Amino acid sequence: ERSTAADVRALAAQARPIGFLVDEGLREAHLAARDFCGVPAVRIDPSRTPRTDGVSAVICDNAAVARAAFEELSAGLPSCYAAVTYRLPRIWARERVAAFRTICRAAGARCIVFPERPGEESNERAARLARWTAALPQHCAVFAVNDYTAWETWRALRSQARHVPKSATVIGADGFDLAPDGDISRLSSVRLDFERMGFLAAKSLAELATHRKPGRRPAVVALGPLLVIRRESTRGRGRRDERILDAVAMIRAEACQGLTAAALAARFRCSRNLFERRFREAMGHSVLDEIIHIRLEQVCEMLRLSRATIAQIAERCGFGTERDLRKIFTSRLKTSPRLWRRENSL
């Protein structure tokens, strides 16, 4: 983050690298194509729009992040929407807020935006955020541009005796657990595919370094989010039917143990059709969709962290067979479990 253009030029001259892999996600200073002194370069750049300056990039599709957040929040039929930007002036944060406002406008919904104040001290921001959250309408749905901002918003709401998720729902983005306390484990998040972003950038750089072609146009690849991690902060939705919220908790606890929609309906002494209708009205999607979503979250964790075979993971996560898992995984995540593991495993 602290490397200047002069540092990069000096490194190119002294070390003679075969390529530069540049993470500009937190940078405000932009490195131009000439700063790489003719050495192939690829930017890992979740904060910027594509640039036609001769440098390839793998970027985050911030509009897709905003869309995923809106879809998760809108399932709760909120009274209105709100957006909170990052504490520091960052292009990716502004893009997410702008996209979220556009999506709300297209849906005919109101969106309240927390005003950005560059250079503001953290205690001043906390006080201002507390006042702002206190004035939000009841049942407002809040999109915080990243997980740290979601944590700030959660604390601000709580300081004003606003209960999350009953009084307001909150979702962040990134899918990291980087907050100073345990509250982050309660916050829903749009999980970004940073691992795949890095893999694609490294692959692109290797191709550029191996097959140098004069006049070759820079390639810009935009990646959308991986999935939505559904947690407590988006549970208070729809009709806020306590039975449905209990059902959601059961799904999150037992989805990978073979739980079915019929078995769940039976626990509530309700016909499956009636239960399915009430669940969809409250959550905005079907019981099966919620079960599959939770199973896929666990599949991704096992693919990333364990050495279990795809067949073993399918069985442990409630899919039964590798074929069933592969079909659903490919349909939802647009890649195969095997390829996803190769690009994301630690």
Q: Nutshell version of this structure?
A:
The chain has 346 residues and is α/β, with parallel strands linked by helices.
Describe this structure in words.
It is a single chain. Helix 4 (122-134) crosses helix 5 and helix 11 packs across helix 12. The model has no long low-confidence stretch (mean pLDDT 84). The strands form two sheets. Strands 5-4-6-7-8-10 form a six-stranded mixed beta sheet, with helices on both faces. It has 346 residues and is of the alpha/beta class. The protein contains 13 helices and ten strands.
Q: How do the helices and strands line up, and which of them pair or pack?
A:
Blueprint: H1 5-15, E1 20-23, E2 41-44, E3 56-60, H2 62-74, E4 80-84, H3 91-106, E5 111-113, H4 122-134, E6 140-144, H5 147-159, E7 168-174, E8 188-191, H6 194-210, E9 220-223, E10 227-229, H7 242-254, H8 261-267, H9 272-283, H10 287-305, H11 310-316, H12 322-333, H13 337-344
Parallel strand pairs: 1-2, 2-3, 3-9, 4-5, 4-6, 6-7, 7-8
Antiparallel strand pairs: 8-10
Descriptive labels:
single chain; 346 residues; alpha/beta; six-stranded mixed sheet; four-stranded parallel sheet; 13 helices; flat
Q: What is the tally of beta strands? A: 10
Low-confidence stretches: none
Task: Sketch the major β-sheet.
Answer: 6 strands, mixed
SSE topology string: HEEEHEHEHEHEEHEEHHHHHHH
Q: State mean pLDDT (0 to 100 scale).
A: 84
What is the 3D form? flat
Number of alpha- plus pi-helical segments: 13
- The helicity comes to 40-55%
Roughly what fraction of the amino acids lie in strands? 5-15%
For the CA atoms, what is the radius of gyration?
22 Å
Q: Which strand order do you get reading across the main beta sheet?
A: 5-4-6-7-8-10
* Terminus-to-terminus distance: 23 Å
Structural class based on helices, strands and sheet pairing: alpha/beta
